[in-house]
Specification:
The complex is a heterodimer of chains A (about 750) and B (about 220).
Chain A lengths: L21 H29 L2 H15 L6 H44 L3 E2 L6 H13 L7 E5 L7 E6 L2 E7 H9 L1 H16 L2 H25 L7 H38 L4 H8 L7 H6 L5 H9 L9 H13 L1 H9 L5 H34 L7 H13 L5 H6 L5 H6 L4 H29 L5 H27 L1 H19 L7 H8 L1 H7 L3 H14 L10 E2 L10 E2 L9 H28 L2 H5 L1 H29 L5 H29 L16 H47 L1
Helix pairs in contact in A: 1-3, 1-7, 1-8, 1-12, 1-13, 1-14, 2-3, 3-7, 4-6, 5-6, 6-8, 6-9, 7-8, 12-14, 12-15, 13-14, 14-18, 14-19, 15-18, 18-19, 18-23, 19-23, 20-21, 23-27, 24-26, 24-27, 26-27, 26-28, 27-28
Chain B lengths: L4 H20 L2 H8 L2 H9 L4 H20 L4 H13 L26 H23 L3 H15 L25 H17 L4 H17 L1
Helix pairs in contact in B: 4-5, 4-6, 4-7, 4-9, 5-6, 6-7, 6-8, 8-9
The chains are: A mainly alpha (about 750), B mainly alpha (about 220).
Chain lengths: ~750, ~220
C-alpha cells in the first residue's frame, strides 16, 4: 500500500482488476497483425518461387470464356480463378504454421537461454535457507498454482529481480544484491518479489514472451525468406521496406507501451499485500530517469515517480489515451487486406469474406477500446462524475482505421490508391471517412451508454458478465460494420454502376408516380445497399443494440454499499441510484406509433384507390413507387416513435429506448406493407390491384421487407432520437437559465 | 566503543553476522573458518601456480574488504567469488538495464562483493607486478606470505592458518607499500569502484578498507 501521512484517511482506490485489462487485447492485436503479414508474405513467396507463371496464364485464359457468359456466370468465373490460386492458400497456411511452430520453439527455449546468458543458477535452500523460505511463503500468498523456479545471479549488484519463462516453467531471477536485501531490508525484499510474482499472476510473462517469440519467429520464418525474394525487385524494395519498418516500429512501441502499463498493474497487485508501504519506499529509491519523451517511449518501465503516483491514485489507469486508440485502429487494419484476400480465395461472397476478415480484428479492437470505456464509466461511477466524451476516441480510432490499410504490406503491391486514406488525400473520400467516423462514434457511444446503465443497475454487484455480453455484442456489431464498410469501399466501382441503374429506375418510376428526389430513391432502393443491409446478422445486431441495455430493467434485486471487487482497499462502497430504464414504456410507444403507421397506410391506400386510375395502378412502376412510399411512411413513423421514446426516457437509456420503440413500429409497419395487398384484395376501398382474398405473400418477401424497414428505420430512428434529445436538452437549459434569472432577480 | 571507529565497525560487523547467521544458517560461522576454502582446496588439487596464487590473493584481499565494508554480504562471499572467477569480465557488462518484466531500471548498486573482487584484482595486478620486479624467483613465496598475512588479519585472527599451503613459506620480507603507493592504490580502487557504479560513499569505504588491509598485512 502506498505511504500516506499518518492520520490522513484515504479514499479507497478503484481496483483496475475489476475488469480485464485492455492491454491483453493490445497484445492480441499485435499477434493478429503479425499473422496477417505472414499470410501476405507467404502468398508473395508462392508467387515468386512456388508457382509457374506460364501455367497460371494458361489457366486464367481458360477461365475467360466463362466470364463472357454474362452476370449469371460471375460465380463460376470466380470459382475458376480461385481454383488457380488455391495452391497459394496452402503456402499461406503453411507459412503461418511455420511461424507459429518457430514461435513455440523460441518460447520454449527462451527461459533456458535467458537463464544461461544472465548468469542465473538455481537458488537452493543451501544457498540461503531463510530466503528460500520467504520466497515460498510469498509464492503461496500470491495464489499461484505452482511455485516458480527461483534462480539467482550472485554477481547481480542491484537489488532487483526479473520474471520470465512460460506456463509450467515460470522463473524468477534474483540478484545477489536482492538476496542481501533480505537481511538489510526484509520488507523491501518482499515488495520486489511480490511485484515479480504479480507479473506471473497477471499473465504478463505469458503474453510478453508469446508476443516476442511470435515476432522473432516472424522475422526468421517469414521476413527472412521474403527478403531473399526481393533482390530482383528494384524500386519496389523501398516501397515494401518502409512498410515493413513501420510494422516493426508498431510492434516495438506497442510492446513497450503495454509493458509499461503492465508494470503498474504488477505494482498494484503487489501493493495489496504490502501492509508496510515498502513498495512505495523501494520505488522512491530507484534512480530517477530521463524525462525526455523519446527515452520514455523506448523504456519498458514507467518512471518511478509515475509508479508511485499510481500506487496512491489508480484513476489514470482507467483512461484510454488517444494515441492508444489510434494505434489500436492502425494495428487492426494494417493487415486486414491480407486476411481478406486469403479468405476471398475460399469464400465467393465478398461481403462474407469482408465480415470474416473483420471477425479476426474487430473483437480485439472492441476489447481494447470497449473495455477502456467500461473501465472509464466504472471509475466515473465510483467518483460520482461523468464519463469522458467518446468523440475524441472515435476520431482517434477512425484515424487509425483509415491510415492502417495504407501501411499494409499488400498496399506496396496494389498501389491502386483505392484505400480510404489515399481517397481522402485526393479529396474524394470525405464522405466515406465521415461515414466511418459517425459509425465508430455511435458504436462507442452505445458501449458507454450500455456500461453506464449496467454499472448503475448492478451497483455493488460485479458487472463482469454484463460487460462480457455487451462487448460481445459490440464486437459483433463492429465486425458487421467494418466488414460491410470495407467491402463496400472495395466494391465502390460496382456501387457507382448500381447507382446509375437506380437513377434510370427512378426516372422510369417517376413517369408514373411521383417518388420524390432521385437521391432519396437511390438511398432506399439501391440494390447494392439492399444487399448489404439484408445480411441476416444485421437485424440481429440491431435488436441486440437495444435489447442488451434495456435488459437492465429486468434486474429486480440490486445491492448497494460494500463492493470488495471494485476497490483495492477495504471500505469501498458503491451507493448509486437505480438508472431510469424502462422496457414497457418504449414498447407501448412503439405499438401506438405502429398503429398510427397502419392507419396512414390505410389512408394512403384509400387515396390511391380513389384518385389513381385503374390502368396506372396495374403498372409495375406504380407498384414499385407505391412500395417506396410505404417504406417511407414506415421510416417516418419509426423516427417519430424514436423521438417520442427518447423524449420520455432519461439519461443513458434514451437511445436504446428510442431504438426499441422504433423496432416495434418498424415491425408493425413491415407487417402492414406485407399484409396490405391481402387486406386490399379483401377490402375493396383499400385495394390497389384486384385478386382473391387469400394470403399469397411469400415468407422470403416478408423477411426481406422486415430487414429493410428495420435496418433503414434504425437510421431514421437514430436521427429522430437525436433531435428529441437535442430539444429536451435545449428545453432543460432554457428552464435552468430562466430559473437562474428568477433567482438572481428575486 | 568510546568513539573508536574501528571498534564501532567491529561491533556492527558482529551484529550483522549474528543476523546473517539467523538468515543463512551456520554458513556464516563456517565461513569464518573456511573463508578461503574454495581457493585453498583448489590449490591442494592443482599444483601451486602463479595464476592460482594471484587469484587467491585477490580473493583474500576482497574478503578482507567485504568484512569491513559490507559484512552483511559475507555469507554470500564464497558463492559470489566462485561466480566471479567463472567469468571475471561479466562485471564490466551491463548494469542499470531497463529489463523487460524486471522491477525497474536497476536500483543503485548495493552489492559490494563483486566490486571488491574486481577492484582487488586490479590492485593485485599492480602489487604482484611490483613484487615480481623486486623478488624475481622468490616472488611466489612472497605472494604466498602476503596471502597468509591478509587472511590472518581478518576477524581478529592472527594465528597461522591450519590450511597453510605447502611450498608457501612465510616470508617476513614482504615489501611494505609506501604511503605514496598506498595513496595511489586508494585512488585507483575508488575510481574503479565508481566505474562499476558503486555509490560514492560505498566506493570510498571500499577503498579505505582495501588500503587498510594492505597497510596492515
Amino acid at each position: 500500500m502506498a505511504r500516506e501521512a499518518p492520520g490522513v484517511a484515504r479514499k479507497p482506490r478503484p481496483s483496475p482488476f475489476a475488469f480485464p485489462s485492455d492491454t491483453t487485447f493490445r497484445f492480441a492485436l499485435l499477434i493478429a497483425a503479425v499473422l496477417g503479414a505472414t499470410l501476405y508474405i507467404w502468398n508473395w513467396i508462392w508467387t515468386a518461387v512456388g508457382s509457374d507463371h506460364r501455367d497460371i496464364s494458361d489457366a486464367v485464359r481458360e477461365c475467360i470464356p466463362i466470364s463472357q457468359q454474362g452476370l449469371a456466370a460471375a460465380g463460376a468465373f470466380r470459382s475458376c480463378i480461385n481454383e488457380i490460386y488455391v495452391d497459394s492458400t496452402w503456402w499461406m497456411l503453411g507459412g503461418v504454421a511455420l511461424v507459429l511452430g518457430t514461435a513455440t520453439a523460441i518460447a520454449l527455449l527462451w527461459p533456458r537461454v535467458k537463464e544461461r546468458r544472465a548468469g542465473f543458477r538455481l537458488l537452493s535452500s543451501e544457498d540461503a535457507p531463510q530466503v528460500r523460505k520467504t520466497l515460498g511463503e510469498l509464492a503461496k500468498e500470491a495464489g499461484l498454482l505452482s511455485e516458480p523456479r527461483w534462480v539467482w545471479n550472485p554477481l547481480g549488484r542491484a537489488a532487483t529481480a526479473v520474471a520470465f519463462g512460460h506456463p509450467g516453467r515460470y522463473v524468477i531471477g534474483l540478484t545477489g544484491g536482492l538476496i542481501v536485501r533480505h537481511t538489510t531490508d526484509p520488507s523491501g525484499f518482499r515488495a520486489v518479489i511480490r511485484h515479480e510474482l504479480a507479473h506471473i499472476r497477471n499473465h504478463d510473462v505469458l503474453l510478453t514472451y508469446a508476443t516476442l517469440s511470435l515476432w522473432y519467429a516472424f522475422l526468421i520464418a517469414a521476413a527472412l525468406p521474403f527478403v531473399l525474394t526481393l533482390f530482383d525487385e528494384g524500386q519496389f524494395i523501398f516501397s515494401i521496406l518502409w512498410r515493413f519498418l513501420v510494422l516493426a516500429l508498431i510492434v516495438y512501441l506497442t510492446r513497450n507501451a503495454v509493458l509499461r502499463s503492465r508494470e503498474i498493474y504488477a505494482d498494484l497487485r503487489a501493493s495489496v499485500s504490502d501492509r508496510e508501504g515498502a513498495l512505495s519506499r523501494v520505488l522512491s529509491q530507484l534512480p530517477r530517469q530521463s524525462s525526455h519523451p523519446l527515452r520514455r517511449l523506448l523504456a519498458v518501465h514507467p518512471s518511478p515517480e509515475q509508479r508511485e503516483t499510481v500506487l496512491r491514485d489508480t484513476r489514470p489507469l482507467f483512461e484510454l489515451g488517444l494515441i492508444t486508440a489510434f494505434a489500436a485502429g492502425l494495428t487492426a487494419m494494417i493487415n486486414f487486406d491480407s486476411v481478406f484476400s486469403f479468405l476471398s480465395l475460399w469464400i465467393s461472397d465478398p461481403i462474407d469474406s469482408g465480415q470474416l476478415a473483420a471477425l479476426v480484428f474487430a473483437p480485439l479492437l472492441v476489447g481494447v477500446v470497449g473495455m477502456a470505456l467500461w473501465r472509464n464509466c466504472f471509475v466515473a461511477l465510483t467518483e460520482g462524475t461523468s464519463p469522458r466524451a467518446v468523440w475524441p476516441l472515435a476520431l482517434a480510432l477512425t484515424a487509425g482505421l483509415a491510415i492502417g490499410p495504407e501501411l499494409s504490406l499488400a498496399e506496396s503491391v496494389d498501389g491502386d490508391n483505392s484505400s480510404l486514406f489515399s481517397g481522402l488525400l485526393r479529396g474524394g473520400g470525405i464522405v466515406w471517412v465521415a461515414a466511418l467516423i459517425l459509425l465508430v462514434w455511435l458504436l462507442l457511444g452505445w458501449i458507454a451508454s450500455c456500461a453506464s446503465l449496467w454499472l448503475q443497475t448492478l451497483a455493488a454487484d460485479s458487472p463482469r458478465k454484463a460487460c462480457a455480453a455487451a462487448l460481445l455484442v459490440a464486437a459483433g456489431v463492429l465486425t458487421i460494420v467494418l466488414g460491410a464498410y470495407f467491402t463496400l469501399l472495395e466494391l465502390s466501382p460496382v456501387i457507382a454502376a448500381s447507382t446509375s441503374a437506380t437513377a434510370l429506375q427512378h426516372e422510369q418510376v417517376s413517369g408514373v408516380i411521383w417518388v420524390g428526389p432521385r437521391w432519396m430513391w437511390q438511398t432506399l432502393m439501391d440494390p447494392t445497399a439492399l444487399l448489404i443491409i439484408r445480411q441476416p446478422l444485421i437485424p440481429l445486431a440491431l435488436l441486440l443494440l437495444w435489447l442488451l441495455p434495456l435488459a437492465a430493467a429486468l434486474i429486480r434485486h440490486r445491492r448497494t454499499g460494500g463492493a470488495l471487487w471494485a476497490f483495492l482497499d477495504p471500505n469501498g462502497r458503491i451507493d448509486v441510484d437505480r438508472p431510469s430504464v424502462e422496457l414497457r414504456r418504449p414498447l407501448l410507444v412503439g405499438a401506438a406509433t405502429g398503429l398510427a403507421c397502419l392507419l396512414v397506410y390505410g389512408l394512403y391506400r384509400s387515396f390511391n384507390h380513389s384518385f389513381v386510375s385503374w390502368n396506372t395502378r396495374l403498372t409495375d412502376e406504380f407498384v414499385l413507387g407505391f412500395y417506396f412510399w410505404q417504406v417511407i411512411i414506415a421510416l417516418a413513423c419509426q423516427a417519430l416513435a424514436a423521438g417520442l421514446a427518447a423524449g420520455l426516457a432519461r439519461g443513458a437509456a434514451r437511445v436504446p429506448e428510442a431504438l426499441c420503440a422504433a423496432t416495434v413500429t418498424g415491425s408493425m409497419g413491415a407487417l402492414g406493407i406485407v399484409a396490405g395487398s391481402t387486406v386490399g384484395r379483401c377490402v375493396e376501398p383499400l385495394s390497389i390491384r384486384p385478386g382473391p382474398c387469400t394470403w399469397t405473400v411469400s415468407l422470403d418477401f416478408t423477411w426481406d421487407v422486415w430487414r429493410q424497414v428495420i435496418a433503414q428505420g434504425s437510421v431514421t430512428a437514430l436521427a429522430g432520437a437525436l433531435i428529441a434529445i437535442g430539444l429536451v436538452g435545449l428545453r432543460t437549459s432554457t428552464r435552468h437559465q430562466a430559473l437562474e434569472k428568477a433567482q438572481a432577480s428575486g | 566503543m568510546n568513539g573508536d571507529p574501528q571498534a564501532g565497525l567491529l561491533f556492527r560487523t558482529s551484529r550483522t553476522v549474528r543476523t546473517m547467521e539467523r538468515t543463512f544458517g551456520n554458513k556464516v560461522r563456517r565461513n569464518g573458518h573456511e573463508r578461503a576454502g574454495p581457493v585453498s582446496k583448489s590449490l591442494e588439487v592443482h599444483p601451486m601456480n602463479e595464476e592460482r596464487l594471484d587469484e587467491m590473493l585477490v580473493t583474500e584481499l576482497a574478503h578482507s574488504v567485504v568484512e569491513q565494508a559490507a559484512p552483511e554480504e559475507l555469507p554470500l562471499f564464497s558463492a559470489i567469488s566462485n561466480a566471479y572467477w567463472n567469468d571475471p569480465k561479466s562485471l564490466e557488462r551491463g548494469a542499470g538495464r531497463d529489463e523487460m518484466l524486471g522491477f525497474g531500471v536497476d536500483a543503485a548498486i548495493v552489492l559490494v562483493t563483486p566490486v571488491a573482487l574486481s577492484v582487488a584484482r586490479e590492485v593485485t595486478e599492480i602489487i604482484v607486478e611490483h613484487i615480481r620486479e623486486h623478488f624475481k624467483e622468490a616472488s611466489k613465496e612472497v605472494i604466498g606470505t602476503l596471502v597468509e598475512r591478509i587472511r590472518g588479519r581478518g576477524g581478529g585472527r592472527r594465528e597461522e592458518p591450519k590450511d597453510k599451503q605447502p611450498g608457501v613459506e612465510a616470508n617476513p620480507g614482504v615489501p611494505r607499500l609506501t604511503d605514496e603507493q598506498l595513496r595511489q592504490v586508494r585512488e585507483l580502487a575508488e575510481t574503479k569502484a565508481r566505474q562499476l557504479a558503486l555509490p560514492p560513499e560505498k566506493a570510498s569505504l571500499l577503498a579505505d578498507s582495501l588500503v587498510g588491509s594492505l597497510a596492515t598485512a
